[in-house]
Design a protein that fits this description.
With 312 residues, this protein is of the alpha/beta class. It has two domains: 2-138 and 275-310, Periplasmic binding protein-like II (D-Maltodextrin-Binding Protein, domain 2), CATH 3.40.190.10; 139-272, D-Maltodextrin-Binding Protein, domain 2. It is built from 14 helices and 13 strands. The chain has helices spanning 2-14, 59-73, 76-79, 97-106, 120-126, 150-153, 159-167, 173-176, 195-205, 220-229, 239-244, 261-265, 285-294, 297-305, and strands spanning 16-20, 49-54, 89-94, 111-114, 131-144, 156-157, 186-190, 215-217, 233-238, 250-251, 253-254, 272-279, 309-310. Strands 1, 2, 3, 4, 5, 7, 8, 9, 10, 12 and 13 form an eleven-stranded mixed β-sheet that branches. Strand 7, helix 9 and strand 8 (215-217) form a beta-alpha-beta unit. The longest helix is centred in the first third of the chain and has 15 residues, at 59-73.
Length: 312
């Protein structure tokens, strides 16, 4: 568990994590073209390395699952005896959902990670052989610093109030509630091209744009850190990140609905989004072996440990 926590912190802080098995990584791929007892073709096409790129929300989850996978098996032949004895190397990098789709499309990464729905035009570009895996559900919570008295005076914001705050129509906290101090509201968002902002825009803002001076964070971890550091800040923090930072930021109700697991699952909490892994084309046997674990009960347990709602 200590190893996992350390790796996750690395992902959050530097937005990229390289997870590798022990020993040499430069081993040459097998040249055999035999078919083993388990029906897995041994060929020079076997790739001991696997890459994931995209959502900064999903990256720590994939890193955690990959860490467990590597600690359990270390080399591919322990996953399947017909795989070569090569060290497992799984690379996870965070750059946003848009970057994840782009990486999958251009095949600069084996898999793309998204914290939003796949757009129709993206599906068309990825082609008929596109493979996608919905791993879980996340929600965007409207969260404030624990020292902000808003959550004690008014723990429920309507969609219209949220829109006014994030658009800049409300610039000071006493405009939200007259009992609050006349202090400027600090709005924190993800970068405008990120999947999280697209979900927030569609769910809350509609055609109204966020205020121009809103602080744009390069990752969900950075957004949460801004709220933790500034008592006048408000932002749409991931449900999983709120759970990982319990007590350090306070999620508010939206239209009277609290962001709980039950309300996210039944759809009553309105600002939710899927966590998806996508690939252009078919999976190789080694990729399928890993994704079988990702989508297994064990993978679901890790997703829940990370504070998200597993899909299965």
């Amino acid at each position: 568990m200590k190893k996992r926590v350390g790796l996750l912190l690395s992902v959050i802080l530097i937005f990229a994590l390289i997870i590798t098995g022990c020993g040499n990584q430069g081993a040459a791929p097998t040249e055999s073209e035999d078919t083993g007892d388990n029906g897995v073709e041994k060929s020079s096409d076997f790739n001991a390395q696997m890459t994931f790129n995209g959502s900064s929300t999903l990256a720590p989850v994939m890193s955690a699952i990959a860490t467990d996978f590597i600690e359990e098996y270390e080399t591919w032949n322990n996953v399947n005896p017909d795989f070569p004895e090569e060290n497992i190397a799984i690379y996870v990098s965070a750059g946003g959902s848009g970057a994840g789709v782009k990486a999958a499309l251009e095949e600069t990464s084996d898999f793309g990670m998204l914290a939003r729905e796949i757009k129709d035009e993206e599906k068309e570009k990825l082609g008929e052989n596109m493979k996608d895996f919905t791993l879980g559900i996340d929600a965007l919570t409207i969260s404030v610093n624990p020292e902000n008295p808003l959550h004690e005076i008014k723990d429920d914001l309507s969609s219209e109030e949220i829109k006014k705050i994030f658009s800049g129509e409300y610039k000071y906290w006493d405009e939200v509630d007259e009992s609050l101090e006349h202090k400027e509201i600090v709005v924190v968002i993800r970068d405008l091209g990120g999947g999280a902002h697209g979900v927030f825009q569609n769910s809350i803002m509609g055609d109204t744009q966020v205020r121009e001076d809103a602080i744009q964070s390069p990752s969900m971890g950075a957004l949460v850190t801004k709220i933790i550091e500034n008592k006048d800040a408000i932002g749409y923090a991931s449900f999983g990140m709120v759970n990982q930072n319990e007590g350090k930021l306070i999620p508010l109700k939206v239209d009277g609905v609290e962001p709980t697991k039950e309300n996210i699952v039944d759809g009553s909490y309105k600002i939710s989004r899927p966590l998806i892994v996508v690939k252009k084309g078919d999976l190789t046997p080694e990729q399928q072996a890993f994704m079988d674990v990702v989508t297994s009960e064990k993978g679901a347990e890790i997703i829940e440990e990370m504070g998200f709602v597993p899909a299965n």
